[in-house]
Amino acid sequence: MKVEFKVNDRKHSIEIEPGELLVETLRRLGYKSVKHACDTASCGACSVQLDGNPVLSCRTFTAAVDGHEIKTVEAFSKEGELSAVQKALVEEGAVQCGFCIPALVVTAEALLNENPNPTEEEIKTYLNGNLCRCTGYVSQNHAIMKAAELRRNSASVPAGNQGELS
Amino acid sequence: MLKIKEYLRPETIEEAYEMGSLPNSLYVSGGLIAAQLKISRLERLVDLKTLGMDEIEDGSIVKIGANAKLTTFMNNPILSSQNNGFFKEVAKDIGSTQIRNMATIGGSIAFKLGWSDVITIFMVTESQVEFYDGNFHKTTLENFIKDGKRDQIITAVYLPKNTKFMAFEKFAKSTFDIATLNLGIALSLENELIKEITIVVGSRPMISERVREVEDFLKGKDLLNSIDKAANLMESVVKVGTDMRASAEYRKALAGALLKKAMRRICYESGIQG
Fold first, then answer.
1. CB of A90 within 8 Å of any CB in chain B?
2. A152 and A100: one domain?
3. Is there a single domain that holds both residue A6 and residue A26?
4. Does residue B36 sit at the A interface (CB-CB below 8 Å)?
5. Which end of chain B has fewer beta carbons closer than 10 Å to its terminal beta carbon, N or C?
6. CB–CB of A60 and B102 under 8 A?
7. Residue of B11, B2, B49 whose CA lies nearest to B27
8. A155 Cβ partners below 8 Å, 6+ apart?
9. Is the peptide bond before B205 cis (omega within 30 degrees of 0)?
10. Band of the pLDDT at B92, cuts 50, 70, 90?
11. Same domain as A60, residue A93
């Protein structure tokens, strides 16, 4: 069957199997940041944004995203410039093996879009579906707090002066 | 990948039911359960999301469209303000953010699975289910669950508005793991005495069920001073089983402990001092 959808603002019109899962389709299209991991809806490493909301691509049928928009981690850096979330994760030492990080970024970006000023508790609640076996989460939570502050400050600065923050 | 022949997107409820009535068909809404099925004879999925049915409408009873996501349910302002914010708080304990963005209210009920937190929550609120099986019907969730049929399409859940105190407790091995046992309680008070009460235990591992012996025991009793006796009674009458998560004996002890916790929470919320 044929479906059309956007990934990171790029339109795809492709043939898929009726029972194909989104993680399989995205990896076939070259979006290898989307991990095929636990396959039990437990680890969150396959998370992508579907119309702005984090979902598990290992439990989403590709046929169901016909006409919708997907975002993977590649959507959040512009011309090699990392997003505030990505920068903060690096600066806080929150990236070790890196396997879970693309999905973590996707989920954290959605959180900050919904809630620009989250508490540490709200971060923990929102991200409890993104498992990480390296960092122990403390540095990740600090990084997201830091990114939230950076984004708020950046939003409050007049457009012409935003370069000073980057 | 599921080895199926067709993924169908009906435009009307009648069309969906016709498609779903074909042999080896399965309805899909959020997709979480369907995507992990290993049924070799499955031939087609019928996607119910194309039917809309995802709104939450206010009224004397709140109508929740079957395709409303758990996130929509959690963040809905009508429900957030009802029963001391009970629904927002309990929804946070179901799954992860990603799962709540996918799972629908109807899909969480339709499979009639034993471990469903959603079924316990709606059963304790004495909600009604509207479904389609060639005709539209409305019945209590309790009756809907007892009827073993799985070929109906849930179209909405009707949540009564009231001022009852509610609590939901679950025990799970991690924050979003399937519950080893869950328990819901809803009650109204008159001069610190229990007037009306509903108690539901789920993930027993069998499907959620009301525990009427404990409800009857507690009617007319002083809430604070009945906690220990009610918990003991719960342990002796609750029907539980053994599976890989826990033994029946362990679940009995959990049922008593979770009832105590839920009753103490209501004492605190209602201002009854211990």
1. no
2. yes
3. yes
4. yes
5. C
6. yes
7. B49
8. A116
9. yes
10. confident
11. no
pTM for the predicted model, two decimal places: 0.92
- Name the pLDDT band for A158 (thresholds 50, 70, 90): low
Q: Measured between CB atoms, which of B1, B71, B176 is closest to A21?
A: B1
User: Rounded distance, CA B8 to CA A66, Å?
Assistant: 12
Q: Which of B5, B31, B176 sits opposite A128 (nearest CB)?
A: B176
Q: Which residue has the tokens 């002083």?
A: B222
Contacts of A56 in chain B (CB under 8 A): 32, 98-99, 102
Cβ contacts of A127 on chain B, cutoff 8 Å: 97
Q: Could you tell me how many CB contacts below 8 A there are between chain A and chain B?
A: 84
Count of CB atoms situated within 10 Å of the CB of A117: 11
Q: Could you tell me whether strands B165-172 and B179-190 are parallel, antiparallel, or unpaired per DSSP bridges?
A: antiparallel
**CB-based contact B99 A127, cutoff 8 Å:** no
A35 is a domain residue: yes
In-domain check, residue A94 = yes
Same domain flag for A71 and A104: no
- Strand, helix or coil for residue B81: coil
pLDDT of residue B148: 76
- Minimum-distance CB partner of A129 among B35, B49, B99: B99
Q: Cα separation of A95 and A87, whole Å? A: 10
**In which domain, by residue range, is A105 found?**
77-157
Q: Which of A24, A40, A55 sits opposite B102 (nearest CB)?
A: A55
Domain count, chain A: 2
Closest chain A C-alpha to B197 CA, distance in angstroms: 31
User: Tell me, what's the ipTM?
Assistant: 0.92
Question: Which are the contacts of B85, defined by CB distance < 8 A and separation ≥ 6?
Answer: none
Report whether A50 contacts A65 (CB < 8 A).
Answer: yes
Contact between chains at B175 and A59 (C-beta distance less than 8 A)? no
Closest by Cα among A36, A33, A25, A29 to A58: A36
> At residue A143, does pLDDT exceed 50?
yes
